[in-house]
Amino acid sequence: MLAPDRYFTPIPTVRATAQALYDEFGSLPLVCPHGHVDPKLLALDEPFSNPAALIVIPDHYIVRMLYSQGVPMESLGIPRLDGGAVETDPRAIWQRFADHFYLFRGTPSGAWLAHEFEGVFGIDEPLTSATAMRIYDRIEASLRRPEFRPRALFERFKIEVLCTTDAATDTLEFHRQIRESGWSGVVRPTFRPDLAINIRHPQFAAELGRLSAATGEDITSYAAYIRALESRRAFFKSMGATATDHAAETPFTAELSAADVNALFGRALAGKATEADARAFTGHMLMEMARMSTEDGLVMQLHPGSDRTHNAAIFEKFGPDRGCDIPIQTEYTRNLKPLLNKYGNDTRLTLVLFTLDETTYSRELAPLAGHYPCLRLGPPWWFHDSLEGMTRFRYQVTETAGIYNTAGFNDDTRAFPSIPARHDVSRRVDANFLADLVARHIVSLDDARQMMRALTYELAKKTYKLD
Fold first, then answer.
1. Which of 36, 227, 366, 398 has the least C-beta neighbours within 10 A?
2. Full DSSP string of 378-412
3. pTM of this prediction?
């Protein structure tokens, strides 16, 4: 089902060059510097339980599409926070998925799933209501075989390094197990302190308790809080981390005075912080995280611009990452100016910016990355991690920032078997983009070959310090 020249332009001369570039560089090892694969998967290396648990339940791209067409999340086996009843029969979940598989026609999920079914499991027929159980049985039979265990797939996918995303208070127990197991696979943690920074989050106080327990700091002051975060960053770095990750509704940054931040943190400890306090504190802490990165060398990633609780009913019933996240119009030039004026010229800092607002590509992000030494542009993210989204990104960013101020590709996935599919789409898009530049005599074929290697492999390693 997978055409060897899929995603390439129909223009013959460009297609031939794109195919040649892909053939030369498309099979390079996968560098995965940002994603959400659970390290427990690779630490325990147990067989995947069933096709529904592997492919449907953890993938919010799948879940949100089915929900948009009236399929209840309970019927897909999505756990409820209150422990309420949900579907537990994986075959019933798979059948519902197959009954609605047509919804994914023309979407990135459809492309990923097609590659996953054929490239990983050898499925050579479309998933439909009629073929659902036959395909389920074939995948289930594969999952019983040792070559389909997580570590074996990791090696088969040619993953050179995989970075996870971990809360600031995570013990990194499973990372330690991986390191001590003797397995050759490289899996690194990433420090994500969002819960310890969002002073309005219902779990903020509990997270501070965990932070205190993990560091031995009695967090009764802002100074102790900062020491605790610095301590955790050092621990993550000792466990192989090379990066941090930060989500914020906006990229607003502003440094508070010592008196103001101490007073604000006091209100947060007392549970009296306002929405204005939360915005100010997040903006201040992004400055602090940049400062810490100049000192400890951890690459800083910033993912702003998503209303992560847009559908309150779903969030309250099922929790985060269930597909009810909606993009927000985002401004970078003014919001990041305080941080960039203080740290943007410091070559010790690497700040990787992501966006869900494509209007910022050529207007703000490319000009910023084309000037400040610290900045790199992350690949198209979330809703734009697609054939057309990647193409728009390349054409809007490259003229101003070039490719060497971008961070290569990351798959940003929770669905482990989709990793090679996502990298394959990116590599084909880049081959097609570069072939077009060659056809229009903007770059030479030799230039394009060097650029292709950079985009598929070298930029991610360099940006995230994974050499």
1. 227
2. PPP-GGG-SHHHHHHHHHHHHHHH-STTB------
3. 0.96
State phi, psi for 188 to the nearest 5 degrees: -115, 145
Which domains occur in the chain, in start order?
Answer: 12-48+147-463 (3.20.20.140), 49-146 (1.10.2020.10)
- Sheet containing strand 375-377, strands side by side: 166-167, 191-192, 243-248, 299-304, 351-353, 375-377
pLDDT digits (tens, 9 = 90+) for 267-309: 999 999 999 999 999 999 999 999 999 999 999 999 999 998 8
Our CA dihedral for 37, 43, 45, 48, rounded to 10 degrees, sits at -40
CB of 459 within 8 A of CB of 28? no
For residues 246 and 301, is the Cβ–Cβ distance under 8 A? yes
Burial class from Cβ neighbours inside 10 Å (0-12, 13-18, 19+) for residue 6 reads: middle
pLDDT at position 320 = 83
Write down the residue that tokens 């903020």 correspond to: 204
